[in-house]
Amino acid sequence: MERGHTGVWVPSIAGGVTCRAFVPDPLPPSPPLAIEAKLQSRLNDALLALGRLDAISTLLPDAKLFLYSYVRKEAVMSSQIEGTQSSLSDLMLYEMEGHPGVPMDDVQEVSCYVKALSLGVQRIREGQPISYRLLSEVHAALMTSGRGIQRGPGEFRRNQVWIGGHRADEATFVPPPANQLADCFAALERFINDADSHTAPVIKVALAHVQFETIHPFTDGNGRLGRLLIPLILVEAGVLKEPLLYLSVFFKQYRQSYYELLQQVRTHGDWEAWLLFFVDAIAATANQAVSTAQQLTQILAQDKMRLAALGRLAGSAIQVLDALFAHPIANVNALTQSTGLTPATIGKVLDALESQLGIVHELTGHKRNRVYAYTAYIALLNQETA
Known about the structure:
This protein has 386 residues and is mainly α. It contains 15 helices and five strands. The strands form two sheets. The chain has a three-stranded antiparallel β-sheet with strand order 3-5-4, with helices on both faces. The longest helix has 36 residues, at 271-306. It is elongated, with a radius of gyration of 23 Å.
């Protein structure tokens, strides 16, 4: 449905250039959403996929083992959309105090994304609502390392910004002036936390994501924080027990459609077209996550069967492999702590897993402080980040 403009344009100045900034109307949309048969069917598909994703603990011995790596994959993808070059292996190497093969700022930004998501979920579980207080704290965590530290961590922007184009009067989009941010964000906060609203959580998160991107409240990091907002709202609403839904892969794959649909909401009020895209993103992403969890479980079971070839080392190798399933990039010290085995035994197991079975490979090329990766596990996650 085309409703016309979903806000008003107001005069502003950015970079010394006069322009028109867009101030969005409060949510929910008016007239109300038209949930017709096609949209309802695809919404049902998304809800079914979310239900399977939430039940992932029945597919894995410990859902947190999957969460550890899946959160990091999302951090990599969300940051790549913003231009970083860090890979999943780079991030995990950095976390092991190793040396990633990309600029340190890149991998620090990705690491901050992981910390920001964890902080947001922690605050929600402590009973905090999704509010300016929570999101400013999450934004500060997101921006306190790498290049973001100079871009106003945790603070609303004080200047007019624009998106696309080298001048504000030629921009693709100009978000609200800084003096209107407080009112715009307060309205979004009321919508997210309106317990009396009849807006279903999946629809609420779809609308809130667009509104956050339109308000663009911070100097930098809005894209990453807007994507973080999606699992945070679903966890707060009880749709997901763990923050396992990450749409960055889908948004990156269909980037042009994503940006066009955001703009179409602003200029034509076509929320339904955006919703069709968004629920398809949920269904595809949730189904892929479940498939990945199943494949990882199969990889572990198949690799354990191969360990019998190691003879007396097999029992220790099972412990090492279980530890690598929890943290698929690790060094001898980390594996010693997680298994209780001696460093000498760990070393023998890793040598056998690498040279005899090809289950792991060493990442650094060093003779000391070596770091090993669970080859098939990392390869599977990397398939989705290509």
